[in-house]
Amino acid sequence: MSMISIRSLTKTFGTVIAVDNACIEIRANEFFAVLGPSGCGKTTLLRMLAGFEIPTHGQILIDNHDVSEMPPNLRPVNMVFQSYAVFPHMTVLDNVRYGLKVTGVAAKEARQRAEETLEMVQLSGFGSRKPEQLSGGQRQRVALARALVKRPKVLLLDEPMSALDAKLREQMQLELARLQEDVGITFVIVTHDQDEALSMADRIAVMNDGKVEQIATPEELYESPASRFVADFIGKVNLLDGHVVGAGTNTVTVDVAHLGQVSIPHQGHASGTVSLAVRPEKIRMDSHKPDSALRMNGRIVDWAYYGDSSHIFVQPEDGPRMSVTIQNETRTTIENADRGDHVWLSWQPGDTLILDR
Amino acid sequence: MESYHRNRRLFWLLAGPGSFWLLFFFLVPLGIVWTLSFGEKAVIDGQISITETEITWTLANYLRALADPVYLKIIWKSVWISVFATLLCLLIAYPVAFLISFTSPRRQAWLLLAVILPFWINLLIRTYALIAVFRTKGYVNFTLEWIYNGLWLDHLFGAFQPLELLYNNFAVVAGLVYVFMPFMVLPLYASIERLDRSMLEASLDLGAGQFTTFLRVTVPLTMPGIISGVILVFIPSLGSFLTADLLGGTNATMIGNVIERQFKAANDWPFGAALSFLLMYVTFGALALRAVISRQSGMPA
C-alpha cells in the first residue's frame, strides 16, 4: 500500500516548469530517495510534499488523504531542512518540544517525549545547550529529533548531508538508515549525491529537468539504467554509438563502428540508432589479445590513482575514449602498465546495455 | 584585520579623525553643559548679571527641578508621549518592513526610497504640512465632512462639527510618529531581511500556525531590529521640541520645550543644563532597563 501517492504532479514558476507530470508511489516504511542534479526540480517536489508550494496540477495523497492544498502545519509530515533551521533563540530541549507545545501537547508529556527523542539521536544531556554551542552534526541531530518527536507519517530530508564533512557524512548515512529501521517511518530524502542515495535508499527516483527518468532500486538503477541520462548520472559509463541490424529472441545485433556487429542480450524492443553502455569496472584490461567479441585496443593516455583503485583512460585508434576502473589488488598492480602502453580492452556481452539515444 | 592592529600608524590615521570629532565636538561640549548645570547667574557690582554665568558647584538647579513637581510632571509626561509614539511607530512599521522585505528586490529599492523620501524635505516644512492636514479646515476634517454629508448624516444630526485635531497630545504623538517612522522601518527591515526564511517554514512544518510562528519565531529573531528601532525613535522623541512646539500648543508641552525656553527666552543656562542632564539620566535608565531585560531573555544586545 502506498504511503505517498504523487499523481501527475506539475509545478510551474512563470514559464519555468520545475516539476513536470511526476508520478511516484512511495510505500509505507520505505526509505525513498529523490536524486538529480541541481535545478532538476527535486527540492520543489519535496517542498510540495511539505506544503510550502502548492501544485499547479496533479495531486499528492498521504495515507490516502488528498493533501495537495493543505497548509504545512496541518500535514502529517515533518521536514529536516538543508540549513537545519534550528531555532537559535531556544535551547535544544525547547527546539525539540516546540512542535509539541504549539499543537497543545501537555507540558509533561512534551518534555518526556522530547527527552526520549534526544536520547534516540544520541543527544541526551544536551537539552539545556544553545544551538550556537553545537557542532554542525549535532545541530542536524537536533533538527532530526525535532521532526521525529512529532511522530510524523513521513519524514522529509532536504540534502541533509551537504553541510557535513566526508567522514561525518558516512557515519550519519549509516545512522540515518538505522534510525529509519527503528522508528519505522517513511523517509523521503532529496539529494544530488548518488553515493548517498545508493547507500541509504530502498528505492530511488532519478529526476532530470523536472521529469522523473526512472524509479528503481539502487541495483537496478546502476545495472539496468533506463536512459542515457540515468546511466551517465549514476556512476561512470562508456557509451558507444551504433544501430540495430537484427533482433533474435532475447538478443539484439548491433553494428557498432569500432567493434563490428555484436550480439547483446536484451529484453524488450530496440531499433534504429542506439548506444551501447558499459561500466568502467566491467572492462578487463590485458596486454594480450583477449578471446571476446567485445574488444578493442588502444593506448593508455591518462591514469588516476585512488589508492584502492585506479582510473585509466584508454584512447583507441578511432572512436571515443574509454574509461576503465581497475582494482589495485596487489601492491604491484600499477607497475604492470604505464601511460603510452598499448592495451586490449574487453568485456562480456551480458555486462553491456542497450540504451535509446 | 590583524594587520590593522599591528600597524599602529595606519590605525591612528583611520581612527584619528573620528576620535578627534567625538572628543572636541561631543565630549567637551557635553562637559561644558554638565559644569554649567552646577552654576548660577554671576553677581557683578552687586547686581545679578543677565548674561554671565558663574560655576559655583551649587546643586540649586537640580533641587529646583526636582522640588517643583511641574518639571517632574513634564518629564514624566514626555516619557509617556515618547513611549506611546514609539509603540505606535513599531506597530505601523513592523508590517511595512515585513512587506518590503518579502517583495521582489527591485520593488524593495523603490519602497525603501519611499520610506526615506520625507528626509529630503526640511523638518519644519514637514511639520507645518501636518498642520495643514490636521487643522479645523484641514484635509482630515474636509474628508470626514464629505463622508458625513455623503451619508446624509447632516440631515439627521445637524451640520458636521470639525474635530479638534491640533494643539493637543494626539497631534504631538501623530507628529512624532510621522517624523521618526523611517528610524523604525529601516532597522526592522534590516533584521527581517536577514531572517532565514527556513526558520519560518520550520515553525509551520512543526505544526505552528502563522500567528504562533510570528510570536514565537519571527519576533524573537528580529528582536535586535526591534530594539534598535525603539531606541532610535524613543530617545529623539524624548528630547524633541519642534514637534511639540508647533503641534502641541500650550497644553501639550514636552521637556524639550522647557529646556529650550530656559536656554533662549529665560536665558537661564544653568537650569536648562540641569534639566538636560536629568533627561539624560532618564534615558540612561531606560537603556539600562533594556540591557537588563535583554540579558534576562538571553537575547544578544
Describe this structure in words.
The complex is a heterodimer of chains A (357) and B (301). Chain A has 357 residues and is of the alpha+beta class. Chain A has 2 domains: 2-231, P-loop containing nucleotide triphosphate hydrolases (Rossmann fold); 236-356, OB fold (Dihydrolipoamide Acetyltransferase, E2P) (Beta Barrel), CATH 2.40.50. Helix content of chain A is 23%, strand content 36%. In chain A, the strands form 4 sheets. In chain A, strands 6-7-8-3-9-10 form a 6-stranded mixed sheet, with helices on both faces. Chain A has a 5-stranded antiparallel sheet with strand order 13-12-11-14-20. In chain A, helix 2 packs across helix 3, helix 2 runs parallel beside helix 4 (136-148) and helix 3 packs across helix 4 (136-148). The mean pLDDT of chain A is 90. By secondary structure, chain B is mainly alpha-helical. Chain B has one domain (62-296): MetI-like fold (Orthogonal Bundle), CATH 1.10.3720. In chain B, a hairpin with a 2-residue loop joins strand 1 (39-44) and strand 2. The radius of gyration of chain B is 24 Å and the shape is globular. The chains are: A alpha+beta (357), B mainly alpha (301). At the A-B interface, strand 6 of A face helix 10 and helix 11 of B.
Describe, in short, the structure shown.
The complex is a heterodimer of chains A (357) and B (301). Chain A is α+β, with helices and mostly antiparallel strands and 357 residues long.
**Shape descriptor of chain A:** elongated
- Class by SSE composition of chain B: mainly alpha
Number of helices of chain B: 15
- What fraction, in percent, of the residue positions of chain A are helical? 10-25%
The helix-strand sequence of chain A is: EEEHEEEHHHEHEHEEHHEEEEEEEEEE
| CATH class label of chain B | Mainly Alpha
What's the name of the CATH homologous superfamily of chain B?
A: MetI-like
